[in-house]
Specification:
about 325 residues; Rossmann fold; 2 domains; seven-stranded mixed β-sheet; 11 helices; about 35% helix; globular
């Protein structure tokens, strides 16, 4: 096991995929010489050269359409969009082209591309560089969406995303880039669509993904000191999501909370809550609750951003409300 930072685990996954398959290329703003805004692709230009690690013009619309065209031509592009907020400029390429091609051509072609993009706050980047927009893409048939919470999952899910024949939106929380974790030395991949129980409990199920998982784990420690034991489910994958795992946990604890950094309204938590209220209704002993950000743009001031983001205290309070 090697101890790697989250960003280093992604770098390792990219490098291994490029060594294994010469059709894998990287595209993005400043990813080559600079190594990307968060240093994730640092060193890859030296090993693979400009033909496979390419800096692009500052046009997310152009680079995303180029990636779709490359994928349709037999290349496996991994595109980096500097901030998830700028995914707004890729919507035609991803929603109208990449997501629809397999369906519109009767299953005869695939679009094996990955779009890596960081979301989330915590660095006072303001309302145009801090949004969590993963629910948009999870709503589109033909797209897959994953969001790892630790270095090992980031490595394993990215390896799987690059191998996947369908377009995958790979979401990375900016707050996680520097965290450390153990990653197995031997290459591996994790199945897209399968969640993981990080901690078993009996009093309530708390479902989360990405950086919010770490806040849930902190809340679990605080609650355990008070004699409350929650089961922590890390979704890993948002679309498809592991409905069977969440339902199994709900049948065990009979209470459900979903927590994410994204705005609570119309979010991933809303979909999970609606589905569990349908298939898991007979197992519920309390209403399903959600924890998410308020329905306002992300503040710029650090003091306001701290109040805006859900945290372990938010989760503790919600769990207490759930079990009382």
């Amino acid at each position: 096991m090697a101890e790697l930072r989250f960003g280093q685990a992604i770098n390792r996954a990219l490098a291994e995929a490029m060594r294994d398959d010469s059709s894998v290329i990287l595209l993005g703003e400043d990813i080559a010489t600079v190594g990307g805004p968060f240093g994730v692709t640092r060193g890859l230009l030296d090993e693979f050269g400009e033909s496979r690690v390419r800096d692009t013009p500052i046009s997310e619309a152009a680079m995303s359409l180029a990636a779709v065209g490359a994928a349709l031509s037999g290349v496996k592009p991994v595109l980096e969009i500097m901030f998830m907020d700028f995914m707004t400029l890729t919507m035609d390429a991803l929603v109208n082209q990449a997501a629809k091609a397999h369906f519109m051509y009767g299953g005869q072609i695939s679009v094996p591309m990955v779009v890596r993009t960081p979301h989330g706050g915590g660095i006072s980047a303001g309302p145009q560089h801090s949004q969590c927009l993963e629910a948009w893409f999870a709503h589109i048939p033909g797209l897959k969406v994953v969001c790892p919470s630790n270095p090992s999952d980031a490595y394993g899910l990215l390896k799987a995303a690059i191998l996947d024949p369908d377009p995958v939106v790979f979401v990375e929380n900016k707050a996680l880039y520097a965290i450390k974790g153990h990653v197995p030395d031997e290459p591996f991949s994790l199945p897209i669509g399968k969640g993981h129980i990080l901690r078993e409990g009996s009093d309530a199920t708390v479902v989360s993904y990405g950086a919010m998982v770490n806040q849930v784990m902190k809340a679990s420690d605080l609650l355990a000191e008070q004699g409350v034991f929650i089961e922590v489910v890390d979704l890993r994958s948002i679309q498809p999501w592991d409905e069977a795992l969440v339902l199994k946990s709900l049948r065990k604890t009979h209470r459900l909370l979903i927590a994410h950094e994204a705005v609570e309204a119309f979010g991933v938590g809303a979909e999970i809550a609606a589905r569990m209220a349908d298939v898991g209704f007979d197992d519920l002993d309390a209403p399903i609750l959600r924890v998410g950000s308020p329905f306002v743009p992300v503040p710029f001031a650090p003091s306001l951003e701290k109040q805006y983001q859900p945290n372990s205290d938010s989760i503790v309070n919600a769990v207490k409300k759930l079990i009382l």
